[in-house]
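so my prof wants the structure for this chain in the tokens format not the other one, which i didnt know existed until like an hour ago. anyway here's the sequence
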Amino acid sequence: MSVRRLYIKDAADLDRQLEGPPAVFLSASIPYERLVPKGMTSYDRRRFVETNKRYVDAARPVQVRSAVVALTRSLLMRPGRIRLVFGAHPAISPIVLSVAHDVQPEGTEPRILIFQSQYFERELPDSTLHLANWDAGLLVFTPVKRVKGKQREAWRVPSLELMRKLMVSVPNMQGAIFIGGMEGVMAEAEVFQVRNPDKQIIPIPSTGSAAAELWKKHSHRFAAAPRMAEMAQLESPHEKAPSYSLLAEHVLDQLGIK
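here's what i got, hopefully its the right format
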């Protein structure tokens, strides 16, 4: 089966081509030790290493995988043809793929929208292409953001920033869920709030790292929502076997996904 691809030119093109059922944004990753980018000052290099170490030390990969599985399954099994939107990630795409194969029947419109910048088109992992090969998945490419007078390497960061802005602007977006992650998850939380100021963001604290930090920052928002207030205890890192299936149901209810 050929890869199902969609190329987006700009925000107006995004609205035109991706108008459809309600969508939920997922930002998730499993922290790993990153290589220090070239050209950093000694100060920036030290901060980069310290930040990366903080996320890696707080990583909870088993919980990240369990939460992604439960959320994807719960969302795809609900009526209303809800779509799941996320950025192509080699550790997350295979998880979503596995659940989608189990839950989503073939021959239906794509409910999984995987975003990637054309800057990385030649570097896509097989797991992402496999997901996009299936009827339930659509690989959405955003434009390369060229920087005048700069070599291609300088286009990477602005291209990624553009992808994130377009990704969180999918029409009919209902809210965002954050699982595990590092700087990318933090950046996506920020851009989501800017683009969707009236929509809820829900971090899953027990998945550690960036999601745990986001929960601490935003937990006051859930004071009036008893189920969400209980979530921090139910899904505490100290729990041996948290019920992510139950948590997924609470989260989707909180976002108004029926």
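also thought this was worth mentioning. The mean pLDDT is 85.
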